[in-house]
Amino acid sequence: MSVKDGKDFLYLIWKAEESRKQYIIGQLTKNGQYEFQYCEEAQDAIADGFTPLFCFRELDKVYKDEKLFPVFSCRLPDKKRKDIGDILKKYGMDEYDEYMLLKRSGARLPIDSLEFIDPILETDGKMTRIFFMAGVRHYLGCDGEECNDTLEITRGDEVFLKREPKNAYDSCAVQILNVLGKVLGYVPRYYSKGVCKLLKDGKKITCHIYNVDKSKNCNECIKVIMSIY
Fold first, then answer.
1. CATH, residue 169
2. Residue 76 burial (10 A CB sphere; 0-12, 13-18, 19+)
């Protein structure tokens, strides 16, 4: 879990339709009560097309509630669903817990570009993160088309991380390479700062391909599991 100062954190990510850039627009915390507030990147996201959530119109306000905000809980499957046991099993859960399900599922919907992620707040201790590799359309030789004819990547393949400090868009950019040193894509921007620091500090990190589905769009075709020791 991402705990800091006694609070468990989740970041709310928004992806711009035009620029395809991902912004950390807000943070949700839990410590006896729930709190939501926008992050600094919300202003940049607004300039890129983001509209503040209807129930959270004020950018500088900290919103508080004893229960999980309805705008977030409604993104989760109903606990009364007949297949809820299978859904919980999918996310390694024994019982229904709204916050934990939000954390593990990301609560993505097809109607918008919002997603919750478990952030990297501290770089000490063991942790595991699973994420979709960013930027693959530019490196697999498909540009979003003829996906089945691209570079062969298989579940379980080990991949490697390499900092790219001269990246024009993100000085904390981290490349993901295969065993031959070919760039496959990048660590998503919302994790790049934390992973960059882990690499600088010499932490042991192992990464493997968690899933490959070339029938999905380029944002979701390759999933990586990263373990930090």
1. 3.30.70.2330
2. middle
Residue 159's DSSP bridge partners are: 207
Verify that 131 and 192 share a domain, yes or no.
yes
Tell which residue, 193, 161, 164, 220, has the closest CA to residue 41.
193
Residues spanned by the domain of 222: 127-228
Which parts of 16-142 fold into alpha helices (H)?
A: 41-47, 70-73, 84-90, 98-105
Whole-prediction pTM: 0.85
Q: In terms of domains, do 35 and 94 share one?
A: yes
For residues 131 and 226, is the Cβ–Cβ distance under 8 A?
yes
Whether residues 72 and 142 fall in one domain: no
Query: What three-state secondary structure class fits 44?
Result: helix
Q: 205, 198 in Cβ contact below 8 A?
A: yes
Q: Map residue 183 onto helix, strand or coil.
A: strand
Domain count, the chain: 2
pLDDT tens, the chain, 229 aa long: 577 777 899 999 999 988 888 999 999 999 989 999 999 999 999 999 999 999 999 999 999 999 999 999 999 999 999 999 999 999 999 999 999 999 999 999 988 899 999 999 876 678 999 999 998 877 776 655 655 556 678 899 999 999 999 998 889 999 999 999 999 999 999 999 999 999 999 999 999 999 888 666 666 788 999 999 8
Would you state the structure tokens that stand for residue 13, as one six-digit string? Answer: 């990510």
Clarify whether residues 144 and 74 are in a common domain. no
